[in-house]
Design goal:
This protein has helices spanning about 25-50, 55, 60-80. The relative contact order is 0.18. By secondary structure, the protein is mostly helical.
């Protein structure tokens, strides 16, 4: 299966959501796009080498943790006031 560059669907965001901490829906959209772009770049490189896509060979628990970490880092980067918590557990 070839790598596909995905985009967040703006119509799927809840425009009536009351977001805390000065967050904007655009912060979430940009964070999602960062993750999509990373997966596209990684998967394209893997496929060029004749390997499987990352999400096809990584265990679900690892993928869940990776997605969480990527989204948290990206959301903190694009947010006006949030900062990433750097202490694990």
């Amino acid at each position: 299966m070839p790598a596909v560059r995905n985009r967040p669907k703006r119509a799927c965001f809840n425009r009536n959501a009351q977001l805390p901490f000065q967050l904007r829906l655009e912060d979430f959209e940009i964070a999602m796009q960062d993750v999509y772009d990373l997966f596209y770049d990684v998967n394209t490189g893997l496929l060029e080498k004749g390997l499987e896509r990352l999400d096809d060979f990584v265990r679900p628990a690892i993928m869940s943790g990776l997605l969480s970490d990527l989204l948290i880092a990206s959301l903190a980067k694009h947010s006006r006031v949030l900062k990433q918590y750097n202490y694990l557990n």
